[in-house]
Amino acid sequence: MLSPDQARDRAFDLVERARRAGAEAADAVYGASSSEGIQVRLGKLEDVERSESEHIALRVFIGQRSASIGSSDLSPAALDELAARAIDMARAAPEDAFAGLAPQDRLTRGPFPHLDLIDTHEPSPEALREAALEAEDSARALKGITNSDGATASFGHGVFALATSHGFAGAHGSTSHSLSTSVVSGDGAEKQRDNAWRSAHHYADLPSPADIGRLAGERAVAKLGSGKMKGGVLPVIFDPRVSGSIVGHLLGAITGNAIARRSSFLLDKLDEQIFAPGVLVVDDPHMPRGLRSRPFDGEGLATSARNIIEDGRLTGWLLDSASARQLNLAPTGHAARNGGGAPGISASNVHLAAGTATPAELMAGIADGVYVTELIGQGVNGVTGDYSRGAAGFRIVNGELAGPIAEFTIAGNLLRMFRELTPANDLEWHRAVNVPTLRIDGMTVAGD
């Protein structure tokens, strides 16, 4: 695999080819990755996967017309043909008043922050197999576990580069380690399935395989005997496994595309109090070892930490250059590139700050409620904020967990849910969106 410097030079070379072919402006994205994964099931090796990929994509501009094209053929002749085809496509494309590269005066020139995304330790296939076996063995050792869907251990390496015709060229690399286990508890119609998984840039940041397996087994066993419940307007506790999805709906609603299209339930809420006072939501692209850390955005702009929600108030939108032009605002360094084409918009490492109460204290005052560990379906309307999803978890009776339940729905409106949200003090830092246990009062719970 190419080094970041070599990847940067390759992207810059394609931009130069496009300029020589007649492009007025251009940018190129280069990406390469390799990975190896070992899967075991019931103590035996089931699958070994090894993959390698390399891809380059070019975007060119002729006036306000643009086109994008990509290829995995990186020979000089193929790259010249790629540039020529992109220019022909751009000349035939419709004009877009908001198209263009990022403002030149906002490009970052470096030096880029060191984010510690590369682990020099590369596990052997034998080590991956041993980790997967240990995780599965740990899960299967628990009383009540009757079968296994298997365990997987994997390692990967990647590099990303971006170059533009107006002065930016940068690249960064990263590694990834992951470990997962899925097991089955019970017999016959009473079977339940659950899992545990973790991913990190550095192997040292993963829990032990035994801990991953034990957690998967405990979750599956805890579901045994799941019942149903009657509905009502009740307090709902969201486990950290699912609480990040609530903040995910916030992030989707404040992207520049949603605001420019006027298709967001937060459209007119800028600078308003949409959470309780004291609630803080932070986007930090420079978190060392963060899963979504990045030294620059998908257009070559600087990235920096930002409070998206401060003391409960919405501070602004997430913008790339195109949506910023539509809204007559400045881009915010949230452009994201995922292969070719125009940039999308994405936050980086996001967290909702911890509160002061323990999860048990959040639950203590609930006479009748639900504790949600699993969400099902995608019943969320981004325009109105209406929220309705299938769920599974546990009944709460008199402040205590009172047995597993399944096949119920929880519903509300995100604006009201945000206002009623109370975070616990159990924030952890191993996800891309890190959110503690949450309590939201007054949700509609529908059961059987």
From TrEMBL:
It holds the Pfam family PmbA_TldD_3rd. InterPro entries: Metalloprtase-TldD/E_C, Metalloprtase-TldD/E_cen_dom, Metalloprtase-TldD/E_N, PmbA, TldD/PmbA_N, TldD/PmbA_sf. Residues 122-224 form the Metalloprotease TldD/E central domain. Gene3D superfamilies: PmbA/TldD superfamily. It comes from the Bacteria. Residues 26-90 form the Metalloprotease TldD/E N-terminal domain. Residues 232-447 form the Metalloprotease TldD/E C-terminal domain. Belongs to the peptidase U62 family. This is Microcin-processing peptidase 1.
